[in-house]
Prior knowledge:
This protein has 3 helices and 20 strands. The chain is α+β, with helices and mostly antiparallel strands and 238 residues long. The protein has 2 domains: 1-36; 41-235, Jelly Rolls (Sandwich), CATH 2.60.120.
Amino acid sequence: MSGKTKALRKFVACAMILAVSSFYPLISVSTLAQTAWKGAGDLSIKGSVTINGTAAISGATVFNESRIKTSRNSGATINLGKLGRVQLGPESEMTLRFSEGVIGGNLTAGRTIVNANAGVAISVATAEGVATSDGNQSSAMTIDVACGNTRVAATRNSAKVTSGAKVEHVAAGKEVAVGQAQAPRCTRLTTASGMELSKAGIAALTVAGVGGATAGIIAATQSDDTTPTSIVVSGFRP
């Protein structure tokens, strides 16, 4: 075998080694890209919904600080992957805020149900206070400002509501109301008002594995008329 042939074979071997070694990082990067959270949510809507004032469609991407607004008889679900999801009922408005360790935002109208996986905290601010969960376990809560005050229901695991200097701890299955309701005998979370999380929504949540707790909240509050004037803790009535 000539010296030129040996040199050529060595060159080809080295080239193959370099090609293979550079291929593995590409595989790792591709795998991480598929499994890592992309830092945005996927929107699913019913009826008329806007993102930052622009008409939205199902499948739209929702980013941190996006303002979601639903119309009458409409609803929206923002799937945040490994973090959890946020659901808005009709005539609701919320500026979403989320990161690797927390989901929530600022609810200015209507009602929302926030589900967070273990390791992810919930923080939702309203005009009357802030509803939070610590994120030690998976959690879910309903926050409702439709009647002018704020009602927070801890659907799954405990929550905390801070209003000024007052801090109220809410056990699972309990609720707190903060502030004065503007509409006497205001009915919340009723199917008659077109709340997305009615029979179809409850069925969807049941399939997702959290329907039992959330369905209980919705069913129990459909006839729950409240006129609280301060922080009140109560159980859900059947």
